[in-house]
Structures are given as structure tokens and as C-alpha cells.
Amino acid sequence: MIDIEDRLELDERSAVDFVLAMRKRWSDTVYPTMAEQYSQSGPPSGDVAEAGRRLRELDLYPWYSHLERVQQKMLWKIAGDAVLRRRADLLAQYDQGSAPLGSLTLDPDLELPSWYTDYDIHIQPGSFYSDDMSAYVYEFGARIVMLRDNDGYKFHRLFTETALPAEDGVSRVVDIGCGFGKSTRPLALRYPDAEIIGIDLAAPGLRLAHAEAEAAGARISYRQGDGRATGLEGGSCDVVTGTMVLHEMPAAAVGETLREAARLLKPGGALRFLEFQPTGDPFRDATIFEHAERNNEPFFHDLFGSDLLQMCRDAGLVDPRWTPFDERRDGISPDGWGERREWHFPWAVLSATKPE
């Protein structure tokens, strides 16, 4: 498979480096400076709404908010141009030259929900589902921004290695909202003898995920479908997981997805979703809400405002809990995220079990 980053021309690489440097300085310099302005503006706020009002009155806020949105728009412009320059070569990769290890099942009649199609999520023009190039654009952007390491999957391997059950006895794993396979391929490494199924609404992402899995020698079944009604048989899965998918849904859809996950699980099966949770610091949490609004992710409020633990209980699951996840350290972090000056995502793992 073509690694677009490895083939960047000098001007393209310089543009990528510029945006990355801007993002880092926004996070580790502008954000702490604004936090200091906030602390000097008065006593700590009692809630996120009050913190948000004070935040927007700070002198640095217009620069902070502008830099956050403009860097994202610049990223997609760079990614889109880089992908389109290589369109023919990238499309050719979908042609299978040998018998596939895994499978790809698309449903051209699948009706995509309006809450999925009404927004250009992450400000990506056309979003993730619009055409075959949109998947490459999203992969390029995701790998550059948060997955930049030796193979682009370190973050998700950390999740599978620290948050998921041991491989003993696991025969089927379902990844809801698998996207271009960034979360699914590490599952195949974690559970080499299990059937791994990735489900997503977007056909372009699934085509790319399948092609990359085949190139890597990973046996994965990718299916186009709705995580709220997968069509898989009930009680057939040992693990149902998803990463960064629930916050893209309205609250009702989150509840439906959790109920479907509970239906799929075998007795004793494990539910694990990597998501976000409030930190308890009103100022920091206000910036998370602001991020969601500037990044075209309107359902963050639904995630933070809903009781997902009760949703799990209502779905028949037991022992639901949230556990912080720190990508800088050892993944699952029961003691919290620790002291961090820079802006960061408050990762957390939602876990629950289907009773025996």
C-alpha cells in the first residue's frame, strides 16, 4: 500500500510540518497562557457554563479559538491536495490481485442517518463517507495529527493491549465504527485466532480498511452497516468495542448502540468503548466543549450530558464504569490523567460486562 506521507514532495512536507508545529504551540503554549489569564481573572468557576462565559472574555481567546479552527481547515486542504495528486495510484490499490484473506461486504441500499450526513465532521469537506478519496483524506489527516508513529497504529494498540480482555477463549470481536481500520487491525494482533469484524456506515472507509488489511496479511471481515442494528446474531461475540464513535452520535443513538452491543455479547462478554469524559476542571472542560463546536462535532454535549453507565445497566450489562486513559503513559490509568499543562483530549474507557 502507498504511504502518502512517505511520498510527499518538499512543499507538501513543509506544509504538514507547519500545521503540526502550529498545533503543538497552540496546545503547549497558547492554551497554558490562556489558562493563566483565566486563573488571574477571578476565583475558580463553579461550573462549565460559567467557565465558558469567562473564557470567551479573555484577551487571548480570539487567537486561541481562531488558531484551533484554522489549523484544522489547513490540515484538510493539505491532505485533500496530497490525495488528489495521487488519485489514480490510490484507486488502483483497491484491485485485489489474489484470493482475499478477509472479506468486504457493502450495502448500497443502506440509508445513512441524517445526524451522520448533516455535518462535515471534523470540518473535513464532504466528511468521511462521500467518495473513495474521502477515506484516504481522513486517514492522512488522522495519522498526521494523532497517530504519527512508526506505523500509525500505536495509539490503538495501546488501547487493545491495556483495556481489552486477555485473548484466552475469545473467538469473535466486533468493532463498531471501525472507519478505515485504525482500531480494527490492532484487534487482529490482539486476538490472532478470533474472527474480527469491523462495522461502519461509510463504504469508502471500509474499502480502504479492507485493502490495507489484505496488504498487511490480516484476516478481517468488514461490513457496511449501522452499529445500532448490525444484523449479526445475538449472543455471538466475546468483545464488542469501538473507539471515538459514541461522541459522534445523538444521545438516542448512543443508547441504541449500547443496547445492540449488549445483544451481541455472549454471557460474560466484555463491552469496551474508548471515548471522552469530563475532567472535573470547569475551565478545561469548557475548552473541550468549545473544541467540539469548532470541529463540527455537535454531539459532544450529548455524550457529556448523558448517563452512559445507566444506559449500560438499562441494556442489561453489569459493572459499568469509566476509567481514564492516558496515551502518554500506560493506557488505562485508574488514577486519572495526571498533571498536564497542555490541551489534551480527556480519553476514558467505558467498560461493562454481560452477566453470566
TrEMBL record:
MF-aspect GO terms: methyltransferase activity
Ranges for domain Methyltransferase: 173-269
- Supply the SUPFAM superfamilies for this chain: S-adenosyl-L-methionine-dependent methyltransferases (SSF53335)
User: Which superkingdom is the protein from?
Assistant: Bacteria
Question: InterPro entries, alphabetically?
Answer: Methyltransf_25, Methyltransf_Superfamily, SAM-dependent_MTases_sf
Q: What is this protein called?
A: Methyltransferase domain-containing protein
Look up and give the organism this protein is from: Acrocarpospora macrocephala
